[in-house]
Design goal:
Elements lengths: L2 H6 L3 E5 L11 E7 L2 E8 L7 H5 L4 H9 L8 H14 L5 H29 L3 H22 L8 E2 L2 E2 L8 H23 L2 H7 L7 H6 L4 H5 L7 H4 L16 H4 L6 H25 L11 H9 L2 E10 L2 E10 L7 E5 L1 H4 L4 H5 L7 H6 L5 H4 L4 E3 L4 E3 L3 H16 L1
Antiparallel strand pairs: 1-2, 2-3, 4-5, 6-7, 7-8, 9-10
């Protein structure tokens, strides 16, 4: 840059993170700012890596379920679902029909918990903490029901390969209905607070816009992409478990407003409507759920023996609260441990859409725009490389990373 360009330059660099009061998890942003306006943005990941995939490849699939639960506490049903679907697809393992309905109930209950938590965080990011307390008070009801059904509030430990570990008895249904009726009775209050309040409207309408074109190009998932008008939902596109038997459709903002803007306000609409949808799906499951077994193979040693003989690969997809979650496993037929296990969390697909969403916005909008995708860095971050000899971190450039990817793909194809 010449001296003349330096004197005429009106922008400056603004780093935010990886630790910052507005960020709930470590992530690094680098912004180019012109006054209060964001001219350009970059996102740098890599501040969290817990080696869960590495640890999983040294355990059997039953043990991995409990590792998968701990990829993300908020998605502690979603990651096990994607993992067990991958294993079941690879090993040709089915599950009883009753278990398929029970799995949907647990998944949709988690969606309610997740969206209510997000609503509180979103309110906090714009300084509206009274709404944070309101939504988290409501979320407690969903967590109480989760504890009642599973024995735990966060890591539930109910999913297993070929079925589910806990049933729902007739004596428990009144408690489920009581909680669902509580949410139905309070839904209008929740809708009014978020969609009619002037504070939320001013801070969310026309802010953080993700166009339909950008959402498609950047492969956004979940409420982030549906808020931009894209009808994409694994539960509808490729029904699994009992979703094919249920009345379910895509949730987009035009259902309520008649238009799609792809802004923060639309992402609020989608999540609120999905809470209402999840209530209906759970009610449908209770009404339609057949009698039957919970697992296809109750003897775990026998199940592991079948897995050990498997030489195949499988992919498991699940529409988590944040969007499509994908797990991939490969078995070589010589061990009960998977040869490889790869996780692609929903947030990974929603990182690049941050860039067009943030460009042109104000500095004060950064927290709510970033939070509007409901990001989880613990799900997303992959690896930090350390030279054991010199105890120094180093980074891989694009060519090195590409070469390593090619080499790994060739190993998997052997």
């Amino acid at each position: 840059m010449t001296k003349k360009e330096e004197t005429t330059k009106t922008t400056y660099q603004l780093p935010i993170g990886p630790i910052h009061p507005a960020l709930k998890e470590p992530v690094m942003f680098e912004f180019e700012i012109d006054g209060e306006r964001i001219v350009d943005a970059d996102v740098i990941l890599g501040d969290i890596h817990r080696a869960i995939e590495w640890a999983g490849m040294r355990r059997n699939p039953i043990q991995i379920i409990y590792l998968a639960e701990r990829i993300c506490g908020i998605c502690s049903i979603s990651h096990p679902i994607a993992f067990i679907r991958a294993v079941e697809n690879a090993c040709d393992i089915g599950s009883p029909e009753r278990a398929e309905y029970l799995r949907v109930i647990q998944a949709e209950l988690e969606r309610i918990c997740s969206h209510m938590l997000w609503a509180g965080v979103a309110a906090h990011e714009i300084g509206f903490d009274s709404v944070l307390f309101l939504t988290w008070q409501m979320r407690e009801k969903a967590l109480d029901l989760t504890e009642y059904l599973t024995g735990n509030r966060i890591t539930k430990g109910v999913m297993t390969i070929g079925g589910i570990r806990r049933d729902i008895t007739k004596d428990q249904i009144p408690k489920i209905n009581e909680t669902l009726n509580y949410f139905k009775d309070n839904f209008e209050k929740l809708r009014h607070v978020f969609l009619d309040d002037k504070t939320f409207q001013l801070r969310s309408q026309g802010v953080g816009i993700l166009t339909k074109e950008d959402a498609l190009k950047l492969c956004a998932v979940g409420p982030t992409t549906r808020a931009s008008g894209i009808k994409k939902d694994v539960r509808v596109d490729q029904p699994y478990f009992a979703y094919g038997d249920l009345d379910i459709d895509y949730i987009t903002p035009d259902i309520l407003t008649g238009e799609v803007n792809g802004d923060v306000y639309d992402r609020i609409i989608v999540r609120l409507l999905e809470v209402k949808q999840s209530i209906g799906l759970i009610e449908q499951c209770i009404d339609k759920m057949p009698e039957g077994d919970l697992v296809s193979e109750p003897k775990i040693p026998k199940l592991l023996a079948q897995i050990k003989k498997t030489k195949a690969e499988g992919i498991g997809r699940h529409e988590a609260p944040r969007g499509e979650c994908v797990h991939y496993v490969k078995f070589n037929g010589d061990s009960e441990h998977p040869y490889t296990w790869k996780v692609r969390a929903s947030t990974y697909a929603n990182i690049l859409p941050w860039i067009p969403m943030l460009k042109g916005e104000q500095i004060a909008d950064i927290p709510i725009v970033a939070a509007s995708t409901d990001p989880c860095m613990s799900c997303t971050n992959r690896v930090a490389i350390v030279d054991n000899d010199n105890h120094k971190k180093y980074e891989l450039d694009k060519e090195q990373l590409h070469q390593l990817s090619v080499e790994k793909t060739r190993r998997l194809m052997r």
